[in-house]
Amino acid sequence: AQSVTQPDIHITVSEGASLELRCNYSYGATPYLFWYVQSPGQGLQLLLKYFSGDTLVQGIKGFEAEFKRSQSSFNLRKPSVHWSDAAEYFCAVGAGNNDMRFGAGTRLTVKP
Amino acid sequence: SQTIHQWPATLVQPVGSPLSLECTVEGTSNPNLYWYRQAAGRGLQLLFYSVGIGQISSEVPQNLSASRPQDRQFILSSKKLLLSDSGFYLCAWSVRGIQETQYFGPGTRLLVL
After folding, report:
1. Are A100 and B102 contacting, i.e. CB atoms less than 8 angstroms apart?
2. Theoretical Cys-Cys bridge with A91: which of A23, A34, A64, A84, CB 3.0 to 4.6 Å?
3. Which chain B positions have a beta carbon within 8 Å of A100's beta carbon?
4. Would the CB atoms of B49 and A102 count as touching at under 8 Å?
5. Phi first, then psi: what are they for B85, rounded to 5°?
6. Which residues contact B93 (CB under 8 A, 6 or more apart)?
7. Secondary structure class of A60 (helix, strand, coil)
8. Does A35 score more than 70 pLDDT?
9. Considering only alpha carbons, which residue of chain B is nearest residue A39?
10. What whole-number distance in Å separates Cα of residue A73 and Cα of residue B55?
């Protein structure tokens, strides 16, 4: 079965600084990869997804992610973080058996 | 447009009591439906998913069960709650196919005392 690892439980960055959230996956075939964001007490919202094609994917709110098959990674990036980006971020991998596996999440704190 | 509803938003229940959480989707037909649990400080754990009425797949053995009595209704139940059942329960839907985006409801926060 597929699995997802987000190595960083909590990250703090200053407003305006760049951001990279790490995600590694384990799956035998080409996976479907997703990044979701969750504001406190809310449901999850999709930021971006990768299925095939260009390995650099653009998402909403200025986020992008790059699929690197050789490293089994799908890291999320943003060039300049805004205070409103403070939230919890989840990487997920989908497989052909109709389910989705989520990572444990990375909580982002943004310092003024 | 499609919307997903969950209720109640918050629930406090004693240990050993029954549970029923409801999720309904509007604006789409034949969705895949999912129940997740998010424990404090932890990621999402897939509990159940359904690809059609009466079709439930369970991912984790537990004292919870799920039912899909109608196409756009998904219910999470328990006969006797445990303390460990506390958490944030999220319902989600997607069109058919795992490559499709999942759309999440607002969640139900359950506290078992």
Report:
1. yes
2. A23
3. 34, 46, 98, 102
4. no
5. -80, -10
6. B2, B4, B25, B28, B31, B32, B33, B34, B102, B103
7. helix
8. yes
9. B106
10. 33
Q: Residues for chain A: how many in total?
A: 112
Confidence of residue A31 (pLDDT cuts 50, 70, 90): confident
What is the arithmetic mean of pLDDT over A37-50? Answer: 90
Nearest Cα to B100, choosing from B3, B26, B23, B33? B33
From B45, B98, B104, residue closest to A44, measured CB to CB:
B104
Each residue's pLDDT tens digit in chain B (113 positions)? 889 999 999 999 999 999 999 999 999 999 999 999 987 667 788 899 899 999 998 877 678 999 999 999 999 999 999 999 999 999 999 987 666 788 999 999 999 99
| Residue in B106, B41, B90 with CA at minimum distance from that of residue A104 | B41
Cβ atoms of residues A76 and A89 within 8 Å: yes
Lowest mean pLDDT among A73-82, A94-103, B30-39: A94-103
